[in-house]
Design a protein that fits this description.
Elements: H1 2-16, E1 18-19, E2 29-30, E3 36-37, E4 43-44, H2 52-80, H3 83-86, H4 88-113, H5 119-130, H6 133-158, H7 160-166, H8 169-194, E5 196-198, E6 201-203, E7 207-208, H9 211-256, H10 262-301, H11 310-335, H12 337-345, H13 348-378
Helix pairs in contact: 2-4, 2-11, 2-12, 4-6, 4-11, 6-7, 6-8, 6-9, 6-10, 9-10, 10-11, 11-12
């Protein structure tokens, strides 16, 4: 009976649409213990398999929990240090990462529950969560925001007069709103036109009108989220590093002349350089970890037959993407001084170490003060 149902569903799919491998996975479905062939010759792997796929989903949930906790700490540190007002786009980047981790936990927990989808509720559950629509809205939004940060840094450092004129608070807030709305619109448009619920199973990013439409979208997605983004990173941060080195030489020469006001300029330069170095590391992490996923999706939509199973590729490349989302907080902790200071103060042993030293210094100061007073009185 089950085989008859699957065969009927398959015949219907092949008659109506051209089915290709899902957006980021051949495992982006909620199914029972079977595989459904697609029109391109690939397979959509069931999410309830108790083999490597099941273990993979469990690992992803754990990664999401760890990433959510780490991103939450970074957001707390930014708020506590008041840098959420000074660095609006960087704060928004961490909000994206936190939402990605939370949605990672929610989405893959639902996949582990192996829900049979029926009716309107099942349809919307597929389109919003099980297809990973919301999850990839936040991931794609973080990429757009990352490019926005590069442009913001470029204007501030390379064209300070123009940057001061353009980068007002309301402009930055508008950019933040556009990153959220743009990523949600882009991702949802693809999901709602290429996803379906068949026999209680959610198939996301799976159904295209033709191989040509899938190929065009694959090329567009790769160019938009890798080629253009990488070019933006290289151009903006390349020019920024040239200007920062020039400024460093000027500050050093100014300091050698003995001008006292150079201390403030040197401090401002160090802060600017620290922010730029932090964002360069974040961008480099994005390029390294997300290239395999983008290349995988690009090749799949072009109809290239991969030498290994699509599911195995998916597990590897998706792990890279989720590591990027969860590893970002480590960069902020290591390189971003305001975040580092706040988080170090949260460590109990650090407080226990600092407090005795502070009390010793205070006692020494009091002793010295008492001796001074006694000496003056004796005189």
């Amino acid at each position: 009976m089950l085989e008859t149902i699957l065969r009927a569903a398959y015949d219907k799919m092949t008659e109506e649409t051209f089915a290709t491998t899902p957006h980021l996975s051949v495992a982006m479905t909620t199914a029972r213990d079977y595989d459904t062939p697609t029109g391109s010759g690939n397979t959509l792997t069931s999410s309830s398999s108790r083999g490597p796929d099941f273990m993979f989903r469990c690992a992803i949930v754990i990664i999401g929990i760890i990433g959510a906790a780490a991103n939450g700490l970074v957001l707390y540190a930014m708020v506590a240090s008041k840098h959420h007002k000074k660095q609006l786009l960087i704060f928004n980047q961490n909000v994206f990462d936190l939402c990605s981790c939370l949605l990672l936990v929610i989405t893959y927990t639902l996949k582990l529950c192996d829900i049979y989808l029926i009716g309107t509720l099942g349809y919307w559950l597929c389109m919003i969560l099980l297809s990973e629509n919301l999850l990839w809205c936040t991931v794609n939004g973080s990429v757009i925001n990352l490019l926005s940060i590069a442009i913001e840094r470029y204007l501030k450092v390379v064209h300070p007069a123009l940057g001061k004129k353009l980068l007002r608070k309301w402009v930055l807030r508008a950019v933040i709103a556009l990153t959220w709305l743009g990523s949600a619109t882009y991702n949802s448009a693809v999901v709602f036109t290429t996803s379906r619920v068949i026999d209680g199973v959610c198939y996301g990013y799976a159904f295209w009108e033709s191989q040509m439409s899938a190929a065009i979208y694959g090329v567009w997605h790769f160019v938009s989220f890798f080629v253009i983004v990488l070019f933006g990173f290289i151009f903006c941060y390349g020019r920024i590093l040239v200007v920062i080195r020039r400024q460093a030489r000027v500050v050093a020469a100014y300091s050698n002349r003995g001008h006292g006001s150079s201390n403030a300029e040197a401090h401002s330069h160090r802060v600017q350089a620290n922010v730029v170095k932090t964002m360069i590391l974040v961008c480099a992490l994005y390029v390294v970890t997300c290239l395999p996923e983008l290349l995988f999706y690009f090749l799949v939509n072009l109809g290239v037959d991969l030498p290994f199973s699509g599911s195995a590729y998916y597990i590897v490349v998706t792990c890279f993407v989720f590591v990027y989302v969860c590893a970002n907080p480590l960069i902020y902790v290591i390189k971003f001084d305001p975040v580092k200071r706040i988080l170090v103060n949260l460590i109990p042993c650090q407080k226990a170490f600092v407090q005795p030293s502070e009390s010793i210094e205070m006692n020494s100061a009091r002793t010295a003060s008492n001796r001074t007073c006694q000496t003056q009185t004796g005189k």
